[in-house]
Automatic annotation (TrEMBL):
Keywords: 2Fe-2S, Iron, Iron-sulfur, Metal-binding, Oxidoreductase. This is (2Fe-2S)-binding protein. Residues 1-76 form the 2Fe-2S ferredoxin-type domain. GO terms for molecular function: 2 iron, 2 sulfur cluster binding; metal ion binding; oxidoreductase activity. It comes from Limnohabitans planktonicus II-D5. InterPro entries: 2Fe-2S-bd (IPR002888), 2Fe-2S-bd_dom_sf (IPR036884), 2Fe-2S_ferredoxin-like_sf (IPR036010), 2Fe-2S_ferredoxin-type (IPR001041), 2Fe2S_fd_BS (IPR006058), Beta-grasp_dom_sf (IPR012675), Diverse_Oxidoreductases (IPR051452). The keyword Transcription does not apply. It holds the Pfam family Fer2.
């Protein structure tokens, strides 16, 4: 049994230590917001937070996550940051097919939690560059991140 803390709850899973965390999250814990995109940690669809840091869960073995705090997009959406991002996504009409959105949201949450100033569009696009959107809604995503950042800082979005 491997013990994890997922979205604030202690869980135990019976799986091989080399099993990618993505499959534990999706298949053992039934948290299907985290997506499988490429399987080689390049696209970002599988991004989750491990002890507060974005990681690609498709390439992270379960053994590397044992005893650590994991936040998925489902957990993020219960936070003020997640709610501000969700509102930003709706306002900017960012989702198209929606497949990359959970990874985009997880990366955006880290970006706006670290940076205390309003980022320019270029800075947002650069910070988010590790996540691929096949629909090409990068400008809408940048607008959504900007909106969320301003909302969280108490300013007009």
């Amino acid at each position: 049994m491997v013990r994890l803390k997922v979205n604030g709850e202690a869980v135990s899973v019976d799986a091989k230590p080399e099993t990618p965390l993505l499959w534990i999250i999706r298949e053992k814990l039934n948290l299907t917001g985290t997506k499988f995109g490429c399987g080689i940690a390049q696209c970002g669809a599988c991004t989750v937070h491990l002890n507060g840091q974005p990681v690609r869960s498709c390439a992270l073995p379960l053994s590397a996550a044992e005893g650590k705090d994991i936040t998925t997009v489902e957990g993020l959406m219960k936070t003020p940051t997640g709610q501000a991002l969700q509102a930003g996504w709706v306002k900017a009409q960012a989702p198209q097919c929606g497949y990359c959105q959970s990874g985009q949201l997880m990366t955006a949450a880290k970006v706006i939690s670290v940076v205390k100033k309003n980022l320019s569009r270029t800075e947002i696009l650069e910070a988010m560059s590790g996540n691929i959107c096949r629909c090409g809604t990068y400008n809408q995503i940048a607008s959504a991140v900007s909106h969320a950042q301003k909302t969280l800082q108490g300013g007009k979005a």
